[in-house]
Write a structure and sequence with these properties.
By secondary structure, the protein is an all-alpha fold. It has 13 helices and no strands. It has helices spanning 2-7, 23-62, 67-71, 85-115, 121-135, 138-153, 158-182, 186-194, 199-210, 212-226, 231-236, 254-262, 267-296. The longest helix is centred in the first third of the chain and has 40 residues, at 23-62.
């Protein structure tokens, strides 16, 4: 009976060739190996230049960091010594103010899009505008705030700088909050509705609490992005050689000071620019590490 079955087996069911002998398989395997090799080569080249930049930054930046740089204001042209105290304080004030502005606005807008924006034309338009703002050049936002705020107030100020960088951070927080809330299982919402909870409580106390680590990550990434923005501050906060904590006046900040000092003919200014660049890099690196640590937590 087995012999009859073997003799009656159609020829189409027989194995024509082994995979290693198949020309199509060989071509695909070759293309796969070429793609992997090129990807690995691109990664190596990118890491090489990244490590080169970081090594140069750390070598020249650490030599410039000292107590004088952290305790004195920027020096006048041709003067030796000086520091970046006014720029550090100005950056902290403007970034902190921008964070206070963009965090509630971005989170509440993200909650609206996720909870009330289903099938809503206004929510679709908001998502479209948010995507445009995410890719908009920061100098355009700086010019917009200049025309709307600085030109009417007739002077540069820290408030204008905070508004400009907050407009850059808001789309990041909105998109992150919206995406994270979409990940909450529908059964969790249905269970909260079944217990009689109103919709606003479900949105804030159930959905937002379930993804609070991801939302905080979005806020920290937005803060890391605006910490090194230079173009918007050139048109809004400008700069100030002296120490100033009044947000209604021109205010020094690290990105603009680094930009100006790096192209100066004075050796101590260039050294301060390297030190300021290292401070910005370390702050952004710390925020990214903190955000990834929070994102990895299961809350």
């Amino acid at each position: 009976m087995n012999d009859d079955f073997l003799t009656s087996t159609p020829a189409s069911t027989k194995i024509i060739s082994r995979p290693l002998d198949n020309s199509v398989y060989q071509r695909r395997l070759f293309a796969h190996r070429v793609g992997i090799s090129l990807s690995f080569l691109a990664m190596v080249i990118g890491l090489f230049f990244l490590m080169w930049i970081l090594l140069t930054l750390f070598l020249k930046g650490f030599s410039a960091i000292n107590w004088q740089m952290l305790s004195e204001s920027t020096p006048p042209p041709g003067d030796s010594g000086g520091g970046l105290l006014n720029a550090i304080v100005g950056s902290l004030l403007m970034v902190g103010t921008a964070t206070l502005i963009c965090t509630p606005v971005g989170i509440l807008a993200g909650i609206y899009l996720a909870e009330y924006g289903e099938g809503n034309w206004f929510a679709q338009v908001t998502r479209f505008v948010t995507d445009i703002m995410l890719s908009a050049p920061s100098i355009v936002i700086g010019l917009f705030v200049y025309a709307l705020f600085v030109a009417n107030m007739k002077h540069f100020s820290g408030w204008a700088g905070s508004i400009a960088i907050s407009l850059i951070a808001i789309p990041v927080i909105v998109r992150t909050t919206d995406n994270m809330l979409q990940l909450v299982p529908g059964s969790l919402r249905e269970a909260a509705f079944a217990l009689g909870a109103p919709r606003w409580k479900v949105a804030i106390l159930v959905r937002l609490r379930a993804v609070k680590a991801g939302v905080i990550t979005g806020v920290l990434l937005a803060v890391a992005r605006i910490s090194g923005e230079t173009a918007p501050l050139l048109f809004t906060a400008l700069n100030n050689q002296f120490f100033n904590s009044d947000m209604n006046k021109p205010m020094a900040n690290l990105p603009v000071v680094i930009y100006q000092f790096a192209m100066s003919p004075y050796e101590n200014w260039r050294a301060l620019a390297w030190g300021g660049a290292l401070l910005v890099t370390l702050s952004v690196l710390s925020l990214n590490i903190l955000s990834r640590t929070l994102f990895s937590q299961k809350i």
